[in-house]
Design brief:
The protein is α/β, with parallel strands linked by helices. The protein is about 55% helix and about 10% strand. It contains 14 helices and six strands. Residues about 1-40 have low confidence and may be disordered.
Length: about 325
């Protein structure tokens, strides 16, 4: 399979850019005596897969020994109307939660996102007389032009990540995926309507670093690979729809296999993807596991909604929760 991961990573880009337009990892933290907060826990938390789609609950105790829960909803950031309705237990969990947590905090979305994206693009304008088109093959230039249309000229003056992100967004829109149908957007909307705070698992800079991953040559290679893959749209479409159908059916194993197979295929294709996957998944999954452990220790009811790949493929968040002794 080819580079489905670059389309999957676009779902984070869709979340970032669509929200801006609509605005609508590692070791346990040491305690004061030098031991880890996890090792000091009297008993491990319990992970339960709920009947609802991509929905898990971690049951543990807080630092005072009282019951503590973290509910996790694995999302897909752009979808169609079939992703709704959400299960009653899911809705109850996020409406009654003491703490809502997403990949990006609501404050970052409302106050910092648009300016940060624009600043990143300003920093990544190419020198006068330079554009990315001369570094693409004739067939790649043709493909890029067919996707970007009138935007080709202006966007080609930026580093390749801008064109890559634009192509990914255009592709997802072309197959009927829309961030407005994303579960994330729905829960953010609920939070705004009800004056709820949404914390972030990632700093905004972490998400922007994913979009801007690599130097010019690395970004160019990722763009070339994407354009080559999109020259065979039937194969890419088949993979994307297989992933989405597995997600809708709550087939955790199938979602994980599709994602993991594509990680392996990409890493075999080029060494750059091994480091990219580490940054996109492993490093963040480790950090998220530490945060989830903190939420359990702090107590109450926490509801997390974040990309399903982090909980289904490879060294998942759950893998790292077990590794640090929380589960």
């Amino acid at each position: 399979m080819k580079n489905l991961k670059k389309i999957l990573s676009a779902l984070s880009a869709v979340l970032l850019l669509s929200l801006s337009l609509s605005v609508l990892s590692c070791a346990s933290a040491p305690s004061s005596d030098g031991s880890s907060s996890v090792s000091a826990r009297k008993q491990k938390a319990v992970l339960t897969k709920n009947p609802e789609r991509m929905f898990w609950t971690i049951t543990g105790t807080d630092s005072n020994g009282k019951p503590s829960h973290v509910h996790i909803l694995g999302t897909i950031h752009a979808a169609d109307e079939r992703v709704f309705p959400l299960g009653d237990k899911v809705i109850e969990s996020f409406t009654t939660a003491d703490r809502l947590v997403a990949e990006i905090s609501l404050d970052d979305i409302q106050m910092n996102l648009m300016s940060s994206v624009m600043e990143a693009m300003t920093q990544d304008v190419l020198p006068d007389g330079k554009d990315i088109l001369s570094d693409l093959s004739e067939s790649q230039r043709s493909m890029l032009g067919s996707i970007l249309g009138d935007q080709l000229g202006p966007l080609s003056r930026f580093k390749p990540w801008v064109s890559t992100t634009s192509c990914q967004n255009a592709y997802l829109g072309g197959i009927g995926f829309d961030a407005r149908y994303g579960v994330d957007m729905s829960i953010y909307g609920y939070a705004i309507e009800n004056g709820k705070k949404v914390e972030g698992l990632d700093a905004l800079s972490t998400q922007l670093d994913i979009l801007r991953y690599g130097d010019y040559e690395t970004q160019l290679q990722i763009l070339k690979d994407l354009l080559d893959d999109l020259s065979n749209p039937t194969e890419v479409h088949s993979m994307m729809m297989s992933l989405y159908e597995a997600y809708l059916k709550d087939d955790v194993a199938a979602v994980g296999k599709i994602c993991l197979d594509n990680m392996k295929a990409d890493e075999k294709r080029s060494a750059i993807y091994k480091d990219y996957d580490r940054m996109l998944y492993n490093d963040r999954n480790k950090a998220w596991a530490e945060k989830i452990t903190e939420y359990l220790d702090e107590g109450g009811e926490t509801f997390i909604f974040a990309g399903c790949a982090h909980f289904t493929a490879g060294e998942t968040v759950f893998h790292y929760l077990k590794k640090i002794g929380t589960l």
